[in-house]
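Reading group handout, session on sequence-to-structure problems. Before we discuss, look at one worked example. The prompt was deliberately terse, the way you'd type it at a terminal:

> structure Aquaporin Z

The input record follows.
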Amino acid sequence: MKKLFAEFFGTFWLVFGGCGSALLAAGIPELGIGFTGVSLAFGLTVLTMAYAVGHISGGHFNPAVSIGLWIGGRFPAKELAPYIVSQCVGAVVAAGTLYLILSGKSGFEIDPTQAGAFASNGYDSFSPQGFSITSAFVAEYVLTLFFLIIILGATDKLANGKFAGLAIGLALTLIHLISIPITNTSVNPARSLSQAIFVGGEPLAQVWLFWVAPILGAITGGLIYKNFLGDNK
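And the output record:
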């Protein structure tokens, strides 16, 4: 149960801190943190929770990461479903908390026809810069693939484990710097689902891509590291 609580709180913090920074702090005139600040916020959520609870659960906070670690031989199959459920619940509770906070602002409402509404992910007209479904799929696939290679490499028994959280957090920052204009950045099915539930409409209909592409990317990354990069001796 400690592992599942750790995944719940870690994923809550990721969504609350990352999506919260986009919703609450990014667009304030002259003082807003902007594109770079949101990217850094997502990285900081993972970095801080990796050191806070990573020693308890492994610090996945992402269904795609759990699946990729399983494929890479670092995580038992029997724990996959409980981890994924804990991550999704943590993400949805975080999104609900953000909704409750934003509801206290006069005039707040979610427009399900707007790209990036409530920090949701999307493609075509729901992409921040109008990128196609193909572009969105390729970006989410490739970025999650490399995210898994970084995670597996940074946590390898031959690596300096003290810096694993830093490397992984900075990797997520870089991923957001690359892909916010494309999909509003997912690489995390739980993060995408939590926001889409509150938006509904087309963003919810498009959430399938933000499960399929990251999971396929994670599987590929896990296989690449296990077979070509890891120490198989």
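Points for discussion. First: The CA atoms of residues 141 and 208 lie 13 Å apart. Second: The chain has one domain: 2-229.
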